[in-house]
TrEMBL record:
PANTHER family in alphabetical order: ESTER HYDROLASE C11ORF54, PTD012 PROTEIN
Complex and partners: Monomer.
GO cellular component: nucleus
Residues of the DUF1907 domain: 19-316
SMART domains per the UniProt record, alphabetical: DUF1907
Keywords from the named record: Hydrolase, Metal-binding, Nucleus, Zinc
UniProt keyword annotation of Lyase present: no
InterPro entries: C11orf54_DUF1907
GO-annotated molecular function: hydrolase activity, acting on ester bonds; zinc ion binding
Record carries keyword Metal-binding: yes
Main location: nucleus
Organism placement in taxonomy: Eukaryota, Fungi, Dikarya, Ascomycota, Pezizomycotina
UniProt name for this protein: DUF1907 domain-containing protein
Pfam families per record: DUF1907
């Protein structure tokens, strides 16, 4: 697979916090962004596989939407551990979270995936593909729908994935992170786009910022989509058919855990997916999927995020 490496030079997190808060204040009734010591994200409500987001922070964009449209590329099969190797992560310890497509070849059908793994090895083994040498914590969720369009959220049984992936990787250590809170949306942008567009407006193409991490929909409700199995009638006629006739849409109440990767800009024309967020219910119910935006309801929406800038971006196996 093709792998290209693109260094990032993120400014101090305090500077990022100031810019993000200003952007959020234009879109939410109440918002704060500050630098804090990361809480243990393995604990509820986040339930990540690693404690933190620090240590060699990197982001990878793997495959892409062209592997789905107009006809699914059934050869686009990946392993999260192999992708970690492509991201120059070490088998002695690390963590990956993000958003992508589930391994249809394992499940027997297409579905959404919320990758959430950590690994460690007592031995300094040179490869990831030695199962006996690695201790893997796999809290990845699969979100799928049945023939009646009802969704379910359950634990993955493998560390495989497919088609397209957007991943945030680190050694998973505690450290300083951006804590971002917002409540009461009053503008047009959803939570993630408000963050990345604020950074885009400030830095432009001169210093693209890539962020990854986790946020919680604490109160309120949001709209999600979940991919069903591949349709029998292929190829897709157009994107309208894919988005309006094939995808299933759902509105779920909080709490929902959301794993996110975002970029302020793509000046190198790498074909990046500018924002990708997949969500799950840590309680194991049917809630989850691809995050779109919060929706008006009886209870005011509230978000709490922990994000970290990446110092390296990897573009892996682009479908062009």
């Amino acid at each position: 697979m093709s792998v290209t490496t693109h260094p990032r030079e993120p400014p101090p997190m305090g500077e990022l916090a100031t810019i993000i808060q200003k952007s959020l204040e234009s879109n939410f009734a109440n918002a704060t962004a500050r630098v804090v010591d990361c809480p243990d994200l393995r604990e509820p409500p986040f339930n990540l596989a690693a404690a933190g987001l620090s240590g060699n922070p990197c982001i990878a964009d793997i495959g892409g939407q062209a592997n789905l449209f107009p006809t699914p590329n059934l050869d686009a099969r990946y392993s999260l551990l192999s992708l970690a190797k492509d991201m120059q992560m070490l088998p002695t310890g690390g963590s990956i979270i993000g958003a992508g497509a589930a391994p249809f070849y394992d499940l027997g059908h297409n579905a959404e995936l919320a990758p959430n793994i950590a690994w460690s090895s007592e031995a300094d083994v040179p490869e990831f593909d030695i199962p006996s040498s690695l201790r893997v914590v796999n809290r990845t969720r699969v979100i799928d729908v049945n023939n009646e369009g009802l969704s379910s959220c359950h634990h993955a049984t493998s560390t495989n994935c497919a088609l397209m992936m957007n991943l945030y990787g680190s050694t998973g250590d505690p450290g300083q992170v951006l804590k971002i809170s917002a409540r009461g949306r009053k503008g047009d942008h959803n939570f993630t786009n408000c963050i990345r567009l604020g950074l885009r407006d400030f830095y432009g193409d001169s210093n693209p910022i890539s962020l990854g991490g986790v946020f919680l929909l604490k109160t309120g409700k949001a709209k999600f989509h979940v991919m069903p199995d591949f349709p029998k009638d292929l190829p897709f006629r157009d994107r309208e058919q894919l988005e309006r006739e094939w995808l299933t849409y759902h509105v779920f109440d909080a709490p929902v855990v959301c794993l996110t990767v975002m970029h302020s800009a793509d000046p190198e024309s790498l074909g990046l997916r500018m924002e990708h967020t997949h969500c799950f219910d840590a309680g194991g119910s049917r809630k989850g999927g691809h995050y779109h935006y919060d929706v008006p309801g009886e209870e005011e929406v509230e978000y709490e995020a922990y994000l970290h800038p990446a110092s390296t971006l990897y573009r892996i196996d682009p479908p062009f």
